[in-house]
Amino acid sequence: MKEKKIKILLVDDREDNLLSIETILEQEGYAFVQATSGRNALKILLKEQDFNLILMDVQMPDLNGYETATLIYDREKLRHIPIIFITAQNYNEESAYKGYKSGGVDYIYKPINKYLLKAKVAVFIELYKKTHLLQEQEQSLRLLNNSLEEKVKKRTEELFKRNEELKMKNIELEKINNDLDDFVYTASHDLRAPISNLERLIDMAIERLKDKFENDDDRIFTMINLSISKFNKTIMDLTEISKVQKETDFVNEQVDFSEVMNDVKEDIHSLIEDAKATIEETYDVPHVVFTKKHIRSILYNLLTNAIKYRDPSRPVRVSISTYEEDDFLIFSVSDNGLGLDAKQRGKLFAMFKRLHTHVEGSGIGLYIVKRIIENNGGKIIVESKPGKGTTFKVYLPHEKEKKENLVLA
């Protein structure tokens, strides 16, 4: 943008004085307007208010410089223009006071020293430029601030609108999830009766026809029974998932890890014996206040997985331990089994996901474990390497001061 030319009003009743001042300052590139009286200056200022400086003679007929300055500064639009008085009078405090009182900012004494005139004018012009620059910057900042406020306001309105939309979608999704849970629970419950009837009918058919079996007939019936058993197990798993996802009220009690683990080992005794598994237990924290059936479900799934996914090339060893870490109570289940790579670990807790198909299973055990733990404010992590084994760590919140969730015995 082209810089605006500095504009100076010269006021003197003598034209030779006006010409002399203009000649001294013309090399500075200023624009000049001449007024030959105080009244003439006022008429010019009524039409033009964009002057940057006024150089005014004090001794003028009709209206002198002080009177003219007073009338100029009576107008609010003109008060920003600095006035330098030019006078032939000797300097004294009374005249200086009179000049400053009328609005003047400085004096030039006759005969005019051109160097002093140039210097004083330059000072006020530089002051004007800096003031004008500050005003422009202030205006720019004000406009920027207004723009930012408008953007923030608009963004806030958009966020509020999106938040409301998300709330509605969450309500809708929650309703859909509840409907799906109800459907799964109802469907799995209603399917149990016909599955049980089918099992009985197959048993009756085997009993009546067993003497007439030919070739692989008995194997076919065995496969039918196995398929029915798998179907029945899947239905039971779906029911369990539905219960876990819908369950919100937990009955907590003091649970003994060793006691629950003994119960689990008794249930899977044949699995442990077949694998010739060695189970090591270390309970630095022997008790926890939790829902007992949930602790049992977690330990059952983690221990059976540790044994089922064993490495046939070495004896099975499983280590189970509990300890405190920061604000968490942790129980860990480690094995020396097949292990998992990074890609497999990412899919480990997905529903119906089986990573080793040579082992029987429905693929929902770890999904249920994860949901139980997260529903109770905890987390589960897995560390594993192929051929080395796997460690599951269950973190449950444990605030020592409040002891709201877990309590040491």
Which regions are unreliable across 5 or more consecutive residues at pLDDT < 50?
400-409
Write down the Rg: 48 Å
End-to-end CA span: 80 Å
Q: Please tally the helical runs, counting DSSP H or I stretches of 4 or more residues.
A: 11
Helix/strand/pairing class, anyone? alpha/beta
The CATH superfamily of the largest domain turns out to be Histidine kinase-like ATPase, C-terminal domain
How much of the residues is beta strand, in percent?
A: 15-25%
Mean pLDDT, to the nearest integer, reads 81
CATH class descriptor name of the largest domain: Alpha Beta
Tell me about the largest β-sheet: 5 strands, parallel
Strand order of the largest sheet: 2-1-3-4-5
Secondary structure topology:
Layout: E1 7-11, H1 15-25, E2 31-35, H2 38-47, E3 53-57, H3 65-73, E4 83-87, H4 93-101, E5 106-109, H5 114-209, H6 217-246, E6 253-256, H7 257-267, H8 269-275, E7 278-283, E8 287-290, H9 292-308, E9 317-325, E10 328-335, H10 342-346, H11 365-375, E11 379-385, E12 389-397
Parallel strand pairs: 1-2, 1-3, 3-4, 4-5, 7-9
Antiparallel strand pairs: 6-8, 9-10, 10-12, 11-12
Question: Any overview of this molecule?
Answer:
- The protein has three domains: 7-112, Rossmann fold (3-Layer(aba) Sandwich), CATH 3.40.50; 172-246, Helix Hairpins; 253-397, Heat Shock Protein 90 (2-Layer Sandwich), CATH 3.30.565.10.
- The chain contains eleven helices and twelve strands.
- It has helices at 15-25, 38-47, 65-73, 93-101, 114-209, 217-246, 257-267, 269-275, 292-308, 342-346, 365-375; strands at 7-11, 31-35, 53-57, 83-87, 106-109, 253-256, 278-283, 287-290, 317-325, 328-335, 379-385, 389-397.
